[in-house]
Amino acid sequence: MASVDSTTLSVSGRLRSGDLLHAGLAVILLLGVWSVGGLEVSTGKVSSVEAMNGSTVLLPCTYSSCIGIKDLHFNWHFDDNGTMDKLCEGDIPMEGVEPRVSVFHDRVEFVGSSKTNNISILLWNITFDDQGKYICFAKNPKEKNRNHSAVFTLRVVDQSMCHMHTPAHTWYTKKQTKKTNFILMNHIMRVYILSSVYFLSPSCQLFLPHKLFPSLHFFSEGD
Questions:
Q1: Mean predicted confidence (pLDDT) in 191-219
Q2: Is the whole model's pTM more than 0.70, yes or no?
Q3: Which residue has the higher pLDDT, 40 or 208?
Q4: What domains can be seen in the chain, in order of their start residue?
Q5: Which is nearest to 153 in space by CA: 192, 119, 123, 115?
């Protein structure tokens, strides 16, 4: 029988240990890449808003995935003192295809679009009972049903508590068919809706994320 010296066994053992180490590092790297590229939802840099009683608020939410989506499912819930009240839900078959949305609340309107990865909603004519946490949730079957959620907090205040500033310019629309108070990022505006396009008449200085509403148009007093 051939003999195997201790040096050969030692070298062989080190090779096997090295192979296992490299395999382990490869798995860790793959998991890290998967984690970085996974589905995420976000309510933006500002995760809360203070809105006036009787106004309409935007509850913002966007999603992102480095590997894309397929049959993405999303929903909105209101945390009513521990009871989760579903406001709406929808499914996006693939990127660029508009979602099929079901709304379960008469004052909720879906205003998102898959073209901008936007699954935001409007909450009309808010009351003090609407104050609380709103959860935006999404699940992506393309990522083995990976899911993620984000929370947006709404605080409702009386009109007398709102501090307004005189605007430098006043905007309006020539054709105004429906109007309501609209609150976004702590700024109070007047919204006019015409043919599914949102026109704003700000009553204070404002910052408006163009990414959420790319079709906004403004008319100055001279137009």
A1: 36
A2: no
A3: 40
A4: 40-158 (2.60.40.10)
A5: 123
Give 152's strand partners.
134
Mapping DSSP onto H, E and C, the string for the chain reads CCCCCHHHHHHHHHHHHHHHHHHHHHHHHHHHHHHHCCCEEECCCCCEEEEECCCEEEECCEEECCCCCEEEEEEEEEEECCEEEEEEEEEEEECCCCCEEEECCCCEEECCEHHHCECCEEECCCCHHHCEEEEEEEEEHHHCCEEEEEEEEEEEECHHHCCCCCCCCCECCCCCCCEEEEEECCEEEEEEEECCEEEEEECCCCCCCCCCCCCCCCCECCC
Q: What is the pLDDT of residue 120?
A: 98
Q: Which residues of 165-198 are buried (b: 16+ CB within 10 A; e: fewer)?
A: eeeeeebebeeeeeeebbbbeebbbbbbbeeeeb
Q: For residue 33, how many other CB atoms are within 10 A of its CB?
A: 12
The torsion of the CA quartet 156, 159, 163, 168, rounded to 10 degrees, works out to 110
- pLDDT score of 37: 61
pLDDT score for 133? 98
Share of the chain above pLDDT 90, in %: 52
